[in-house]
Every structure is written in C-alpha cells, then in structure tokens.
Amino acid sequence: MQTSQFEEAVEPIEQVVVVGTGFVGLPLALQLAKAGKSVIGVDIDEQLVAAINDQSLNLDEDKLQNLLESDEVEENLQARTSPTSGDAFVVSVPTPLTRPQKSPDLSMIKAAVESIIPHLEEGDLVNIESTIPPLTCEEVVVPMLTEAGFTPGEEIQLAHSPERILPGDVFEEIVHNDRVIGGINEESAHRAAKVYEPFLKGETYFTDLISAELCKLMENTFRDVNIALANEFALIGDSLNLDITEVIELANRHPRVDILNPGIGVGGHCLPIDPWFLNEVNPEHTNLITTARRINDKMPQASARKIRHALSEFDNPTVLALGSTYKPNTQDERLSPANEIVDELRRDGYEIEHFDRLVDEKQYDNLKMLIEKIQPDAIVHLVGHSETISQLEELKPWIADQEIKLIQTENGNPLRL
C-alpha cells in the first residue's frame, strides 16, 4: 500500500548511522546530511573514511560530488570506522557470492548487525538496505537481535528497504525512484519511511519483510532473464551469419514484443548475483533463472572467441582494448565483462594494452595520442562511453589510414553477437 496517515504519527528520525559507505550507503548518507540530518557513516576502509571527512573523495557523478563538497554535508556528516548511537541504523554492506558454490555470503551483513548491537537502545530502528535472500531478516537478523536481548517489533523496530539505484545515475534515482519498505510490523515499516522522507520524491509502498526481500530479487532477475534471451538470440544469429540487431529491430515492430539489445555480458553488483539468491532458497523452481544466468555468464567467452577470429589475420598482434567498466558512462568495474574478455585474451597469449577514460588507473587524455603511443594492430572497443564513441567516430578515417583494425559496432555497443 502507499504512504498512509499512520506514518505521520511515527516519531521522526534525527540521527542516522549508515553502516557501509560504498555505492549505496554513501549517496544515502549524503542526501540525509544535505537535508540537515545528523549522519554517521561507518566503513572499515580507513582511507575511504578519511576521504569522506576531508571531502576529497572523487565520485562518479557531478551531482553527488557537489553534495559531498557542500557546507551541509561538511557540517552534518561524520565518517567513522565503528558505529555510535543513533535513532536509526541503516545496514548497506555488500552481499557477494561464495565461489564456486554461488551461495550468498552473509558474513558482512552479520558483521554489520553485530557492530551496531552494542549501540542499540529501546525505540531504535534497524533498517537493512543491502540486497539479501528471502528469509534473511527472519532467520539471521531477528535471531541476532533477540540473542542481544531485544524483541524486534517491540523494543527495536526492524525493516528492509532494498535500494533501487543505477550506478551513473544514482543522484536522480535515489530521489525519484519509488521505495518498497518491508517491516516486521507496520510501525517498523513506517518508521523506516522516515529515513527517506527528507529527500524522497517517489512513492513509498509498504509490505512485510520477506515480500520486500523477494521484490528486489525479482526486479533484477527479470532484467537478467530478458537480457539472456536477447543474448541467446544473438548466438543463434551469429551461427546463421546474420546481423541480429536488424532482426531484433524487425521483431520489435510487433506491438507486444520488446526484445532487449544483446551485448558482451552482464556485470555490476546486482544482476550477476541476485538471481542466485533465489536459487539458494528454492532451487527446484529456478531452472529458467539459473539457465539465463549461465547464458549471460558465458557471453564474455563468446565475445573473446569473436575477437580471436577477427585477429586471426595477424601474427602476435598488439591490441588496444578500450573500456573496462561493466557499463557505459560509469567508473564502476564490478564484475565487468570487459575485464573478463581482456583476461581471457591475455591467457591466450595476446598482448593487450587496456585503457578506460573513466577509470583512474587506466585513464588517458587524448585517444589519438594513445593510439600513436601504443601503435596497435587492432583496437577493440569494449565499453561504449559516450565520449569514446564520439572520438572513435571522428578518428575512423585516420585509423583506417594507419591500417589499424577497429573491432566495433556502429552504435558503440561493440561485439554485439
């Protein structure tokens, strides 16, 4: 249900402790501090804590950077390596997969909850924002709080509000996206809404804990399965020597068909991970989901095969690879298919020079100067950053004159199979 009058009777929240100040927790902390709330940002990374406190952290988005450097944030946000007291504790730490089992690793969730327990007082809120498997709140968080002497839903309020943000557009999405908040009871859910109230412009929808846990996983799994369908179409088209992009455009002329664009793989910290959380709790009914996940997992290897084929005319070629992030126009390299492709080719013995204009340790200032310095036999465009697309388009005649092979599709989404 949407926001109701019940929420208006819930006590406001003045001090928020955000445990985990990474891709999700830091934007929340910045928004709350900008709104005048007292915010404690907690992270085990001492360098990150120092960079937040002296406002020297280099963020991916200009609007987030402006927030970090604002007077309000300087006044209201303090970063620490350990928690302190507060009205609300937001847990926003990663939930990776174990290898090779592909089971959720909840160790950071448990460590975060354990770290705040000594600071909890009656009436406080614990709000899990991390993406978690269904039943995590009920089977992991509730027992931890109970063992510490609290009754969740009575002395301590407990909620789960999974994030809905997109790296590269975090500022807009954290403000305008709708919020789903699950609570151990109605009071907990509405109290958690008070955390986001100072900046949220989207709607708020309330439910129970397990429904909120499942909702986030369904959202990302839906996207992953549909991407896998497009990628499998691409593999079929490749076997038939067809430009599958043209066929997809034709198929999408149907009023009830909307096939996505295939690509080199699926990266980031959500889509490659979240579907496995569903498999963990119900493997019997995740056959389609896990098959889709395996299709997307093999796309970097399929892309590497295409590159090897394109490079077969050369003996020991020098290759310039452009792009190392998991998607265009972001600095985020988490589970990047581009990096997996480069690693695959290097294992095959190819000499790969790998650069990305947005990633600090791989940056370059001028693409033409970079090409002149590397003198590659081939350029493989892996990630379609807008500026890279624009520069490559301008340089195409010159690249051809240099007899350098350019492996790229026309619209900048390269190696579309």
From TrEMBL:
GO molecular function list: NAD binding; oxidoreductase activity, acting on the CH-CH group of donors, NAD or NADP as acceptor; UDP-N-acetyl-D-mannosamine dehydrogenase activity
UniProt GO BP: polysaccharide biosynthetic process
Coiled coil: none
Domain UDP-glucose/GDP-mannose dehydrogenase C-terminal: from-to ranges: 320-397
UniProtKB keywords: NAD, Oxidoreductase
Domain of life the protein comes from: Archaea
Enzyme class: oxidoreductase
PANTHER family to which the protein is assigned, alphabetical: UDP-N-ACETYL-D-MANNOSAMINE DEHYDROGENASE (PTHR43491:SF2)
Protein family: Belongs to the UDP-glucose/GDP-mannose dehydrogenase family.
Name of the protein: UDP-N-acetyl-D-mannosamine dehydrogenase
